[in-house]
Design goal:
This protein has about 280 residues and is of the alpha/beta class. The chain has one domain: Ribonuclease Z/Hydroxyacylglutathione hydrolase-like (Metallo-beta-lactamase, Chain A, 4-Layer Sandwich), CATH 3.60.15. The protein contains seven helices and 14 strands. The chain has a seven-stranded mixed sheet with strand order 6-5-4-3-2-1-14. The chain has a seven-stranded mixed sheet with strand order 7-8-9-10-11-12-13. Helix 4 links the parallel strand 10 and strand 11. It starts with a strand and ends with a strand. It binds zinc ion (2 copies). The site of one zinc ion has 7 residues, from helix 2.
């Protein structure tokens, strides 16, 4: 059956702000959005500018019933949502999950970026049925179709959630917008243990992070490919995927990062728009 598969497809891999242009054609300039297919279940990770193009594709499907997992509410992770066409159709349903925040609701956070005078239409103009569920880091949930979602807290200004999605005995972890410590983050290590694939925040090189090149990036909430390799090795991860590329890193620069990371941990790749990872396929 064609639907019997566990597939990840990347629609936006860039961090912080979209970075279109001739120098980012290979890896892409859109901010985070990943499509996940677990059999008949559709999960969307983050709603950065990459979700616009995903929406155009999905718009060809009838009556979409999808789960959207948001790592956090920084603009690069939600800015595509007002341009997500299927969100404007009343026969579609979206169940949005994100971390619980004090003194506000998930719905209010989603509507904030569309409020007058920042945007011409409000969240209410999106006619699809929207359901919201707030999670505490470490809280887990089961979706229809036996898809298991586990979470852990990322280390990021304002917080972030990392997700582990498991289906048919195979899993991957999405851990973006998280900064490493001087030791391996125990909650991320636990989340990543023996997973088949880890998508990890590799915004900076270690030289940029510590300030050998430019301003030190300590406390900015992002990590490096070296730290991704450390975590992947410690957790016995099947494959490491570098994600959330810095908008100032052009294709050549990311290519060099990918080469070095691949030397340190063979099989490591830098995510690019259009990349597909097939984790499992049924008979
Ligand atoms: Zn980000
Ligand atoms: Zn962020």
């Amino acid at each position: 059956m064609a639907d019997c598969k566990f597939l990840i497809r990347f629609w936006g891999v860039r961090g912080s702000i979209p970075a279109p242009g001739s120098e980012t054609v290979k890896y892409g300039g859109n901010t985070p959005c990943i499509e996940v297919r677990c059999g008949e279940q559709l999960i969307i990770l983050d709603a950065g500018s990459g979700i616009r193009k995903l929406g155009i594709e999905l718009d060809k499907e009838m009556s979409i019933d999808a789960t959207i997992l948001l790592s956090h509410f920084h603009w690069d992770h939600i800015q595509g949502f007002p341009f997500f066409k299927p969100g404007f159709k009343s026969d579609n349903k979206f169940h949005i999950y994100a971390a619980r925040k004090l003194n506000t609701t998930l719905q209010r956070l989603m509507s904030g970026q569309m409020m007058y005078p920042n945007f011409p239409v409000s969240l209410n103009a999106m006619a699809a049925e929207m359901k919201y569920t707030e999670l505490n880091p470490g809280e887990n949930t089961i979706l229809k179709g036996d898809v298991e979602i586990k979470t852990a807290a990322g280390h990021h200004p304002g917080g972030s959630l990392a997700f582990r999605i498991s289906y048919r005995g195979v899993s991957f972890v999405y851990a973006t917008d998280t900064e490493h410590y001087s030791y391996i983050d125990p909650s991320l290590l636990k989340l990543c243990k023996d997973t088949d694939c880890l998508i990890y925040d590799a915004t900076y090189t270690s030289e940029e992070y510590c300030g050998k090149v430019g301003t030190p990036k300590t406390g900015w909430g992002h990590s490096t490919w070296d730290e991704g390799v450390k975590l992947a090795k410690a957790a016995d991860v099947g494959r490491l995927i570098l994600f959330h590329h810095d908008p100032e890193h052009d294709d050549d620069f990311i290519g060099e990062i990918e080469r070095q990371a691949n030397e340190a941990l063979p099989g490591t790749i830098a995510a690019y728009e259009g990349l597909e990872i097939l984790l499992w396929i049924g008979d």
